[in-house]
Amino acid sequence: LVPTLAPVLIAIALAYVLDGVVNLLIRCKVPRMLAIAAAGGGALLLILFILLTVIPLLSEQIGRLVTQAPQYVQSIREMLLQVQANHVEWMNPGFLQKVIAAIAVKLQEWGGALLSFSIASIPGMITLLVYAVLVPTMVFFFLKDKELIINWMKQFLPQERSLLQRVWIELDTQIGNYIRGKFWEALIVGVAMWLVFWWMGHEYALLLGVLTGVSVWIPFVGAAVVTIPVILLSFFQWGWTDTMAYSVLAYAVVQTIDANIIVPWLFSEIVNLHPIAIIVAILLFGSLWGIVGVVIAIPMAALVKSVVSIVLERRQNS
Fold it and tell me: Which of 299, 309, 289 is nearest to 219 (CA)?
């Protein structure tokens, strides 16, 4: 069902993102249809740039990583053996060999999975054409006829829908702000990380920038997981040098700026949730819907909080 509705879900997410741009242009006295055309045209230019420039470069870096994976495995093996030679008194050789073998197997698995994903995720021409035609069309009509679509859906709801109406207002606000905020946060953080690593001469700058941007969508866990490839790929290129330390430090600085400046700025209107509530939501919705559940865990948790608050408020009033 999810693959079938994927174009609709993508169109809804893009419509939420562009709706913020459209509203901003309308507040600047731009007519609504002209604002929709300007936002849509800008989005199409951005997508065209990604397809023609970013995707080929990203594919080249992924291919290079998979090709050089055996050399990287050997580098890790030599490093661990050197550590054993320097500290033979407290390191068990048999245990070290098991660790080396496990790391080699795991890196080979990751390389194969990365290559398989890079090949399998490239859609066929028919699917690509369908997405290229259907998604922009649906985004246009979602933006143009937003109120008309909402009014059409209301006729299927019961006449007494004050509770549903309050829940819908909360849901629309929370999901809209969350999707828009996460999109711009991922774009800002990903591009910043890409530019920093490119300036440092990192051969996997774009790949690490994309991974950093994607990690933004997974609270807490994403940044911690991406730290591993940042450290490993920097070590493979520069070894234990000052440049490697600077690359990890740059990643930490970008993450700190994101957590303390970008997130409060972009998500000032989102209902605050306790970190425990966010972690529970990630575990719960992740177990139900996989990676999609992890991505939408925060808006779903905000929705649950809003519904519970409204119900408790009505109970107290009655």
Answer: 299
